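Cross-posting from the modeling subforum.

Setting up a comparison between two proteins and wanted a second pair of eyes on the formatting. Protein 1 (sequence, then structure tokens):
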Amino acid sequence: MEDIPLDVGQNMFFQHDGCPAYYALAVHQYLDATFHDRWIGRGSLFTWPPRQ
């Protein structure tokens, strides 16, 4: 992420793609802190079925 320009990174979403459904509070907290509710997956504001 360090190589991505700030203006691009602030509008970027992260998606766990191709991985099985996995949920841990530590992972959820890290993704919220890093991507500020701009991530897609179990426990996010944007749900997406696993392995889609």
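Protein 2 (same layout):
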Amino acid sequence: MHHAHLSLPMAAATFFLLVTIFLSSICINFAVIATTPLPKFPAIFGFGDSILDTGDNNYIRTQIKSNYRPYGQEFPNGIPTGRFSNGRLIPDMLASILGIKDTLPPFLQPNLSNDDLTAGVNFASAAAGFDAKTSVFTKAIPFSKQIDLFKDYLATLKGVVGEEKAMKIINDALMVVTGGINDYTYNMYDFPTRRLEFTPRQYGDFLLNNFQNFTKELYNLGFRAMLVIGLPTVGSYPFRPLIITLSKLQQTLPGSKIVYNNLRLYPSIKAIAHISWSSTFNKVLWKQKTDVVEVGYWSKILCAIQRLHHVNSLPSS
């Protein structure tokens, strides 16, 4: 399959990376939405951590799970599905808004239908990271393994629709990716083994390099449209108050360090291909209203999803 060996030219005109780092003021000028055509993506795929995980952790041996109440209490029928939310997550909302499907199923879910496969699945795993050591602690599916799962998926998809159509689906699909927060949390603070090897800045460079390699490999596998979600501020991450008080955390990890690493994300991925830069990072802490269910953050994210309507439609390859 020649797609697995594509080079990565700087002028790859059809490779757009939609980078959305969320603003508190991102929900402006929505009068344009009604007249702006949605990008025509036939499928959507997710790679990342709990921000995107729609249930893959249900099927692996990890303690990082959310398939119990009160998770899912606002999901259809009030069922906890393994989403770290009271309802739907970003990939579900994107899939619905873009008219692809109502929700994005986890790839590890048994008995996926052909329709599920052709419209996209999710490989994200809560507590995963770009650093392989993160999954040593969490037993989540590391990003390298998520790529392996995608390769398994692609082989299955080719068996369903044929190689040519399968690659057409991947070429035209939207890939959503987020990660990095667990790497900082586990490797620099909870189990600070990486502090023996890296300064915070050096560790950021290490993660950015891993991120760049990750996106390059997915490009070589056929993806041409990527939505990259930047790091939230660590102090507002929902489980942190259960481990350490917010005030103590902010003393040890000022938000500016995470902001700095978010800003460094842009030139890193700009080196890969042309980027449609749709927003910039906001330093405002979006404080959670609960320590158990991720709620408040998603109202901002919904605005960011709606903001996607303003981004240029992606051409078919």
